[in-house]
Design a protein that fits this description.
The chain has 225 residues and is α+β, with helices and mostly antiparallel strands. It has seven helices and six strands; from the N terminus they run ααβααββαβαβαβ. The longest helix is centred in the first third of the chain and has 42 residues.
């Protein structure tokens, strides 16, 4: 009798342990899923579902360090939706949000290599990090992005550029070096974007590939497409 009682208690104890282990395993899986969702929220733009500025900063610096070590080029495209404030004023903010979602998706369809990073840089501005990409390759990608956005044919009757939503793009490329600050490449792309707008928008402007000496001199744009 005593033996049977002990065996019964042992069986019940074992079953309880197994049940608790299953519960613990389930909770652990749920926590893992929840943590992954939180991680995604931290680096994904809630509106466009592409990388946010925080993710851009991380990827940009990581690629800068890696490509400096490998002696390979890094390119950056900054692009801005032309006359987006006028678009919002004309069509309303919900339409503006939908427009940004379409633009983000279109950019992602062009810059689709695993290492490429497409991010919402702020407001209606987007950034594209192109590792192991020289100037000619970056210009090709930028022009493909511009054409892809234009082909969406999103009506914009308040634009001075045309009847559709369009992008202005600034391109800059460099081989990272210790003598060059990462912020200088961002500044070059930003200045190039400014010049694209000055040239009439719906176009891209680019700088030649700069050396560390050139980066500390003038910011003269050499071409516009």
């Amino acid at each position: 009798m005593l033996f049977n009682s002990i065996r019964s208690r042992t069986t019940k104890f074992t079953l309880r342990i197994e049940r608790e282990e299953r519960i613990f395993e389930k909770i652990s899986k749920e926590l893992t899923i929840a943590n992954r969702k939180l991680e995604n929220i931290a680096v994904i733009d809630s509106l466009t579902k592409i990388s946010n500025r925080r993710r851009f900063d991380t990827v940009f610096m990581s690629e800068w360090v890696r490509l400096m070590r490998e002696g390979q080029p890094l390119s950056l495209i900054l692009c801005d939706v032309d006359h987006f404030k006028a678009y919002n004023d004309t069509y309303g903010h919900p339409a503006g949000d939908h427009c940004l979602q379409q633009v983000a998706h279109a950019i992602k369809t062009v810059a689709k290599r695993p290492a490429d990073c497409v991010a919402r840089y702020g407001g209606e501005e987007f950034a594209v990090v192109l590792p192991n990409t020289d100037q000619s390759g970056a210009v090709h990608v930028a022009e493909a992005i511009r054409a892809e956005i234009e082909a969406l044919h999103i009506p914009h009757i308040s634009s001075s550029v045309g009847h559709w939503i369009s992008l202005s793009l600034g391109v800059a490329s460099v081989i990272p070096k210790k003598e060059i600050a990462p912020s200088q490449l961002i500044e070059l792309a930003d200045q190039s974007l400014y010049m694209a707008k000055e040239q009439g928008r719906n176009c891209l402007h680019f700088f030649p590939t700069y050396s560390d000496v050139d980066l500390q001199s003038s910011l003269v744009v050499k071409n516009c497409i």
